[in-house]
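User: I'm curious whether this sequence folds into something compact or stays loose and floppy. Could you predict its structure so I can see for myself?
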Amino acid sequence: MTENHFKTKSFQFALDVVELCRDLQTTKKEFVLSNQLLRSGTAIGALYREAQHAESGEDFIHKLSIAQKESNETIYWLELLNGSNLISKDKFERLNSISIELIKMLTSIIKTSKAKQNRNPTPK
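Assistant: Here's the prediction. I'll summarize afterward.
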């Protein structure tokens, strides 16, 4: 797994979220939950991109940790939409599965970054 794979996967996920939210707003007239999902689901890739220009190793890890939290929040909104029968079970399962995969990828990147940092601490 490469970080470029995460960049591509998180961007495609954001596009899927945008499409779902557009559909929810036009067909179901659902704006509150869809806006929450839109915000958290698109933040994952945006935070990753921001982390690419982090000021330090700690900043990189911090930004990815926030992306991890946004991924978890996205799962919550998907579960709520599914539980409210606002999205199909198939759509929920597909997007939920990708969200879980993104969390796992972020966890791996964070762990690797922390291990590298512990091997090569920055001088104070």
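Summary: The first helix runs from residue 3 to 27. The chain has one domain: 3-115.
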